[in-house]
Amino acid sequence: MSRFSEIKDLVTSLEADFEKFYEKKNSAAGTRVRKGMQEMKNMAQEIRKEVQDIKNKG
User: Fold this and answer.
1) E-state strands within the chain
2) In 3D, which of 32, 51, 37 has the Cα closest to residue 7?
3) Is the Cβ–Cβ distance between 15 and 45 less than 8 Å?
4) Where does residue 26 fall: left (phi above 0), alpha (psi -120 to 50 degrees), or beta otherwise?
5) Cα 23 from chain centroid?
């Protein structure tokens, strides 16, 4: 479940930047949101691979 916690922590850490970008139109916050979303995409891909590997071994 640590992988799930990692994703939750990442989403939580981006919350303020989402608000700054969408509510206050802060473009620097938008850059941080994009970077965080890319990190989340990469993390999701790693987790998908882990799950598939575990399924294939079981």
Assistant:
1) none
2) 37
3) no
4) beta
5) 20
- The answer to whether 29 and 21 are in contact (CB under 8 A) is yes
Burial class for 20, CB neighbours closer than 10 Å (0-12, 13-18, 19+) = middle
Site of tokens 């938008």: 30
| Measured distance CA(12)–CA(3) in Å, rounded | 14
Q: What is the pLDDT of residues 44-55, one digit of tens each?
A: 999 999 999 999
pTM, full prediction: 0.85
Distance CA 45, CA 20 (A): 27
